[in-house]
Amino acid sequence: VFESGARDYELLEELLLLADVGPAVAGEIISRVKEKKPKDIITALKDEVVQILSLESADKPVKIFVGINGSGKTTSLGKLCHRYVSEGKALFVIGTDTFRAAADMQLEEWCLRTGVPYYIGKPGSDPAAAIFDGLNSTAAKNVNIILCDTAGRLHSNKNLMEELNKILRVSNKVRPDQVEVLLVLDAAIGQNAMEQMDIFQQAVQPSGIILTKLDGTARGGVAIALAAKYHIPIKYIGVGEGLEDLLPFSPQDYVDSLFP
Amino acid sequence: GLSQRLQGIIGKLRGRGHLSEADIKDALKEIKLALLEADVNYKVVKDFVATLQQRCQGSEIMNSLTPGQQVIKIVRDELTNLLGKDADTLSFSKGQSTFMLVGLQGSGKTTTTVKLARMLKTKGKKPLVISLDTYRPAAIDQLAIAAEAAGIPCYRPPGTTPVELAKKALAWAEDSEHDIVFFDTAGRMHLDDALMEELQKLKELIKPAEIILVLDAMTGQDAVNIAEGFADRGLVDSFILTKLDSDTRGGAALSVRAVTGKPIKYIGLGEKTEELEQFHPDRMASQILG
Ligand SMILES: Nc1nc2c(ncn2[C@@H]2O[C@H](COP(=O)(O)OP(=O)(O)OP(=O)(O)O)[C@@H](O)[C@H]2O)c(=O)[nH]1
Ligand SMILES: Nc1nc2c(ncn2[C@@H]2O[C@H](COP(=O)(O)OP(=O)(O)OP(=O)(O)O)[C@@H](O)[C@H]2O)c(=O)[nH]1
Ligand SMILES: [Mg+2]
Ligand SMILES: [Mg+2]
Questions:
Q1: Is B184 helix (H, G, I), strand (E, B) or coil?
Q2: A115 within 8 A of A131, measured Cβ to Cβ
Q3: Where are the beta strands (DSSP E) in B199-256?
Q4: B222-231: buried (b, 16+ CB within 10 Å) or exposed (e) per residue?
Q5: Which terminus of chain B, N or C, has less C-beta within 10 A?
Q6: Which chain A residues have a beta carbon less than 8 Å from that of B189?
Q7: In the 3-class helix/strand/coil scheme, how is chain A assigned residue by residue?
Q8: Higher local confidence (pLDDT), A152 or B19
Q9: Count H helices, E strands: chain B?
Q10: Contacting residues of A for B42, CB less than 8 Å apart
Q11: What interhelical angle do A23-35 and A222-230 show, nearest 10?
Q12: How wide is the angle at C-alpha B210 spanned by C-alphas B208 and B216, nearest 5°?
């Protein structure tokens, strides 16, 4: 009987590893489950992971989307616009990616698609000035929610992380206590996400994660390690490139998809 | 990094002058852990460690006076060998060569298309870039704007579907002076049958000299699934790893190479068009080992 148990634990640890949970956290989760000496190992494991992922966090009206290049910030912002509009919210969008080619045109198209008014910083202009002007504009008054896009960046680039910190400080000045930062994370990313979160945490203290591209084979398991270490909840998941492809995160649904 | 960790384990055995089976086992365990932390695929790690085990039974290790250093050297050599040979360039055909850049959403295809064109322009070639991405908002504009900033000609064919655009573009390019044509394609999941079939159709039409899979170097365990998904359909001849300017260990490099045998040719080291370099297996091996 113990023989088959050991094999089960080995297979489940392998599943966690293949999902990018990482060797350290996978090992910790499996040991904690083993300690409980459960009859149904899989259910005990699922419950353990659901517990790690069940986190509450603030919901502020001004939301700044940050993250690594190509993670899905602009697209997720566009999808969230669609969701809020269909909930009858009054929205405003601010674009601060003044660096990448056609970043302004891409965001503008999402705003036009979803019928949301916007202020987008001109290419080459200062991102912090863009958010300052956007937040102080007349159109930004009397809305329920303001979504702010930022340029992709690597946590390893000190100047760009300082730029992001400045964008947050300016936002906090104009809208004190109304700002939260959402980290947009690609589900296919590996253990480097831990380093990323370490740096992004110091720079802008994200209060939530949007886990994108879960419509592929990647399972985004590093988000479990992030939840365990930083207690930051996953708020939404991206499951495609269309307007409707953004869903509120459900720990149980996610765990069920990890261990079918 | 791994070197220090292995020195630590094997260094403790200095008094003995030879390694036992148990010592080798400990060293291999440490190597396995380091590779998993570096995002090398779990199954690739298992195979790699099995190969190492064979080599570590040999007299080079068992009789060595510095077994720790020997083990590290073997790991580094095996890793470098697996990662492929140095300085592999694009495969040009006579006359006009066409290339397709493919890969998952957001991996860096559009940016890399312009980087490759710029690199070849400095080598005296006359590259042309064309976007076939009719899906992503402002994708075609993105390529056009980035190409213009780099002084690279970009042709924007009329049409509303990738196949339509490709046909028009091929006809136009045929009469042009361009010896190299790069086709930027829309990001897609290897799981998306319709989009993968569209890519196969584009391949039949374009008959590229090479299909380059552009992959984010920070990709974790999924790198193997991506590589196999494209390779199984004949949709990858080589790789470019992007965003290696991050501090990622880049184990995905070993995974895709081990699973497809296709070469990694270039690496992206930033967002600027000059930030593209040759892939060096020995440097990558050091990066993976950490
Ligand atoms: N399949 C799939 N694709 C997605 C998802 N989210 C975003 N994408 C795609 O990923 C690519 C990159 O998305 P963007 O929104 O441009 O990413 P970004 O983080 O704003 O990129 P940068 O601003 O360049 O850093 C696009 O092709 C999107 O359509 C998702 O949940 N699923
Ligand atoms: N730091 C860094 N950023 C990169 C690198 N290569 C591309 N990027 C950035 O990654 C993001 C995505 O690049 P794109 O060229 O739009 O990616 P793509 O594969 O064409 O995206 P889709 O067409 O949506 O699939 C952009 O912000 C690029 O500037 C690189 O080597 N280093
Ligand atoms: Mg963006
Ligand atoms: Mg593109």
A1: strand
A2: no
A3: 210-216, 238-242
A4: bbbbbbbbbb
A5: N
A6: 213, 215-217
A7: CHHHHHHHHHHHHHHHHHCCCCHHHHHHHHHHHHHCCCCCHHHHHHHHHHHHHCCCCCCCCEEEEECCCCCCHHHHHHHHHHHHHHCCCCEEEEECCCCCCCHHHHHHHHHHHHCCCEEECCCCCCHHHHHHHHHHCHHHCCCCEEEEECCCCCCCCHHHHHHHHHHHHHHHHHCCCCEEEEEEEECCECCHHHHHHHHHHHHHCCCEEEEECCCCCCCCCHHHHHHHHHCCCEEEEECCCCCCCEEECCHHHHHHHHCC
A8: A152
A9: 12, 7
A10: 14, 17-18
A11: 70
A12: 125
In a mutational test of the B interface, the residue from A65, A69, A79 whose CB has the highest number of chain B CBs within 10 Å is: A69
Q: Are A125 and A69 in contact, with CB atoms under 8 Å apart?
A: no
**Helices B139-149 and B109-122: angle between axes, nearest 10 degrees:** 30
Which residue's alpha carbon is nearest to atom 27 within ligand 1? B105
A77 alpha carbon, closest ligand: 1
pLDDT tens digits for A160-195? 999 999 999 999 999 999 999 999 999 999 999 999
What the block records as the tokens of A68 is: 């690594």
The amino acid that residue B88 corresponds to is D
Over residues A69-86, the mean pLDDT reads 98
Nearest to A188 by CA among A225, A209, A218: A218
**By the 8 A CB rule, do B267 and B253 touch?**
no
Read off the tokens for B244.
Answer: 């290696």
The two three-digit tokens of residue A17, written as one number: 């590893």
Residue B117 has pLDDT above 90, yes or no: yes
pLDDT exceeds 80 at position A40:
yes
| Ligand at shortest distance from the CA of B146 | 2
